[in-house]
Design brief:
Blueprint (H helix, E strand, L loop, with lengths): L1 E5 L3 H12 L3 E6 L2 H10 L3 E4 L5 H7 L6 E4 L4 H13 L5 H11 L7
Parallel strand pairs: 1-2, 1-4, 2-3
Helix pairs in contact: 4-5
Length: 111
């Protein structure tokens, strides 16, 4: 399965480790090169240094061919809004957008 993970913090790196150990094709996106180094050096994954809400970075990651996209950035609402704009501009397909929204729903304890 081809999986794109936006966010290389603790959660993103942990997910990358778990999913790559199951032989999934993982691409990890983050704008912090230091966070990406652990994934690049210790895991069998692709890393992209860039803004995960940028159309250029999303295209570079091959997100339109991904089976699953997981957003674990600190800016979920900004990310969600930009993705809906990208969909309206026909930069990403509807199927992709529906998958992303499942992962961007707020936790029940959040306001």
């Amino acid at each position: 399965m081809r999986i794109v993970i936006a966010g290389a913090g603790e959660v993103g790196l942990h997910l990358s480790k778990l999913l790559s150990s199951e032989s999934h094709d993982i691409t990890l996106i983050d704008n912090n090169q230091i966070n990406l180094k652990d994934g690049e050096n210790y895991l069998d994954i692709n890393v992209i240094n860039g803004d995960s809400s940028s159309p250029k970075t999303l295209k570079k990651s091959g997100v339109s061919n991904a089976d699953l996209v997981i957003g674990v950035t600190a800016r979920h609402l900004v990310y969600q809004t930009k993705l809906s704009i990208f969909f309206r501009l026909r930069l990403i397909p509807l199927q992709f957008l529906k998958q992303v929204y499942l992962f961007l729903l707020p936790h029940p304890s959040e306001p």
